[in-house]
Structure formats: structure tokens, C-alpha cells
Amino acid sequence: MGFWDGRRVLVTGASGFLGSYVVERLRARGCARLYTPSREDYDLVDGSAVRRLLDDCPSDLVIHLAAVVGGIGANQARPASFFYDSVMMGVQLMEEARRRRVAKFLALGTICSYPKLAPVPFREDDLWNGYPEETNAPYGVAKRILVVQAQTSRAQYGFNAVVLLPVNLYGPRDNFDPGSSHVIPALIRKCVEARERGEPEISVWGDGSATREFLYVDDAAEAILLACERYDGSEPVNLGSGAEISIKDLVGLIVRLTGFTGAVRWDRDRPNGQPRRLLDVSRAERLFGFRARTPFEDGLERTIAWYEGSRPPTAP
Fold first, then answer.
1. Structural domain tally of the chain?
2. Which of 8, 16, 125, 191 has the most CB within a 10 Å radius?
């Protein structure tokens, strides 16, 4: 509790999916001097807005969560936007925080930064051993840049900048928009709506052979706060559950939990994305004591229940 006493904390992306959980945990820990600016008031792509933000919200700790995010389809449709906006938000904010001598800066990277064919499980030392998978490479490279900036700013100026690399997150309050959602909310929505309409089948991208790792969003929020409290190192740190599941098995699990009884049709003309994703999560446990606590099926059940309870019924 003492770490947060009197500390002025700025959270970008505070109204977003992960940000809302981070803010809840900060308040539960007694963080009373908390800034949660909106994008409408401060567009972090604009350098003048970044400077105005830090004028208005003088901070001891910045937790940078704001980003342009989405699934494979969104990344393919807007690769330049994913790259440019993510770079400009992170680079300008980190540099301006350094110039103002902010005591600590924590930035969120992404599993998408890893090489397409990185050895499994992905270890932080393999981050630079190849180009990311093509469908999300612009976003992944943009987040790699933050690792370089954090390490060089530390080496030259002694700036305490930390970068965490999370897997795909899921949970209640996720983005269920089919145009931009990630795989879990997209599948949940598809199954629930197909069940309500009595449709005989759903269509899923790829062939189901790709694997993914997922982390429950509230566990991710706890990991971020633990890193704020306990980690001041230069090396990026993976955040994940350490459990791998194929898309085929994931679809089967969501089909069962949503009560959809139709067939699954695999659209093999659509990309699988990265062949495998699984993180080595030992560094996070060793350096700041984080281990994922939420069993995957429990997290899915909570996510499905939230989605079904927060939306109007599907039109027939």
C-alpha cells in the first residue's frame, strides 16, 4: 500500500478494456492521486496534446496503455494506422515524460512483436531474431520501438522505463465489435447470435491449427501494478498464462459454453495468423512475483455471462 501513498499516477487508455481494470486495482490499492485522461481531450498522436497532458497532469508514474488494437482483419485493413498511431503515441509520451523527469514510465508492448517463427515458448531474448507475422507486423514493430526507446533512454539518461509484453487479453468489458475484435470476443458473439437465430453453422477463419495463449484481463492488471511496485529493470518482460490452446479447441470450448449446437465451417481462404503463440512467463514470476490466477474456462464463463447480460437480444 505504501508504494502508492501520495504518488501521482497517469494512466493513458484508462477508459479502455485493460485500462478500466488497472484503474480499479489502483483505487483498491489506495492510489488517490490518479489521472485518467480521455482521448477526446488529449490525442496522443499530436505532440502538442502530449505536452499539454503532462502540463495538466504532472505525474510521478506514467502507465501507458493507450494503443490502436484489433484482430487480424483490423490489422490487415489499417496497417499504416496501426503502425503510425502506436509509434507516435508511445514515442512522444515517453520522451516528454523523460524530459520532465517522471520517476517511472511503464509501457505496454505486445506478443505481436515476436518473430513469426520464434522458438516456442517465446523468450524475451528472442524478440529480435526475425520479423513478426505479416498480418500484425506493423503493430508489432511499432511496439518493438518502445523497447528500444526505453532501453536507450535508460542507458543515456538513467530514465526508469519498463516495457511489458502481454499475450492476448480477454474478459468482461472486452471489445465485441466484429470489425475490430480479437478472437475470443469475436467467437463468443458469433456463437451467441447464431444460437439465438437458430442458425445451422458458424464460419471461422483459417483451419484451426494455429495456437494462442490468453490472459484474463484482471490478472493482467495485477501484473502491471506488481511491475510498477517491484520491477525497475531494462529488459522487457512477458505477461501470460503459460498455457497454449489451438484455435480448433478454443472454438469447441466456446461453442460448448455458449450452448451453440450447430456446425463449425472453417474458412481456409482466410489467414491463420501466427502459427503458434506461447510465452515463457518465468521472468515475470522471478522479477516481480506475477503468476496468472484465473483458470481459462472460468474466465471464459465470466466473459460470456457479461456479454449476454449487457446486450439486447439478437434480432431474428
1. 1
2. 191
